Each structure stands twice: as C-alpha cells, then as structure tokens.
Predict the structure of Biotin carboxyl carrier protein of acetyl-CoA carboxylase.
Amino acid sequence: MDIKEIQSLIKFVAKSGASEVKLEMEDIKITIRTGSTSSSTPETTIVQQIPVAQAPSAAAPAAQAPATTQEAASPSPSDSKKGDDDSKYITIKSPIIGTFYRKPSPDKPPFVEVGSSINKGDVLCVIEAMKLFNDIESEVSGKIVKILVDDSSPVEFDQPLFLVDPS
C-alpha cells in the first residue's frame, strides 16, 4: 500500500462518517479516527509498519490515572434520595476505578466497620487497579455510618464508598 492509497482511504473514511476504521494486512496496520463533529478531515491517523515475520501484538493497556487520596464531598442529589437523614453525612468516593477491598489481606480484619471512629489520614480500604493496591485514606474525621460497597466488588471513579458522620 503506497501513500496515495492511504490518503484516498483517509478521504473515503472521512466522507463515510465512520468514527474509527482499523485495517490490518500482512505488513501494515492502519487506524483512522475521525472527529465526531467534523466529517471533512480526519482528526487522528496512525500508520504502523509491522515486520512480516512478526504477528500483530495486542494493544498496550491504557495508562492508569495516578492514585490520589480520595476526596470527601457532600452527597450528590442521587445520594440524598436514600433518606433525608443522609444529607448530614459526608460521602467518601472512590478516586480511581478498580476492585474494592475492605481488608489489607484475606486473613486480616477489615480496616473499618460501621461505627468505627476515623481520623484524617486513616486508611479506609484498598482499591486494586492494574495489579497495584492503592490505600484509600480519609480526608475527614468522624464516624463510619454506612459502607456502601461490598468487599471484592468493582468500583468506578467517583462512586460513593462510605458515609461518614463528621460530628
């Protein structure tokens, strides 16, 4: 495939309205991504030469967002529908995507239980992301009122994990 054929392929994909096209042949791999709002010019074009003797390799996993201590915030409107009394609590949310663990290891006790008093900087749980275990520390002091996630469950970014009574 020569450069003129690649250019005509890019123009064809842009006119077709497709958002992404991947083409893999023996010696070349092409990915064309077009902008979602503009169909006249492509936004990104990636062309990779692959040695003929080598099989195409799997794409590298996406880079992990740096783990940070989690943020404490007042409950969102969706949290307040659980009960009016929940509005006085602080919701501790997940700072990353991963798997939630209440214990440091299977044979150890949980970091916190309902009713536990916590201080700023105390480890509340661990979230595993890409084989890395990230300690999630409290940004507030108070008492754990509710644990909103089951042990060994997947969690999303900004998903509520704990309700804390700051008083």
